[in-house]
Amino acid sequence: MVKQHDGTGETSTTQPAQIIKIGLRYVMTAVFAGAMLFVLLALGPGTDIRAHLGGFLCGLGIAGLLAGFSNLEQRPNLQLLSGIVFCAQVIVPWWFALHH
């Protein structure tokens, strides 16, 4: 059981099953939102669907890898690396798209 303070001075307990349920809902909401963005923006006429699908799957993979790390706010090197990877994932495909 995890004890949480609710700000009124009282302590409530949260069961592990409740924590897993809340976490799973959070993850599934994010995946669903990403899937909807993919459908709305990447499946239009004249778009490279395979490239957008590859980017979506890479994003899911990187998010899955980063989810395994705890206390990301205390790891500035990992945050910097994540920012560099993100920038590369945006800049490199656009560079290829505009130069080929």
Task: List strands and helices in order, with pairings.
Elements: E1 2-5, E2 11-14, H1 16-42, H2 49-67, H3 76-99
Helix pairs in contact: 1-2
Strand fraction equals 5-15%
Low-confidence stretches: none
Question: Number of helical segments?
Answer: 3
Mean pLDDT: 81
What features would you describe in this structure?
- By secondary structure, the chain is mainly alpha-helical.
- The chain has a domain at 1-48.
- Helices cover 70% and strands 8% of the residues.
- The chain has a two-stranded antiparallel sheet with strand order 1-2.
- The longest helix is centred in the N-terminal third of the chain and has 27 residues, at 16-42.
- The chain is flat and about 60 Å long.
- The chain starts with a strand and ends with a helix.
- 0% of the residues are buried.
- The mean pLDDT is 81.
Notable characteristics:
about 100 residues; mainly alpha; two-stranded antiparallel ribbon; 3 helices; 2 strands; about 70% helix; flat
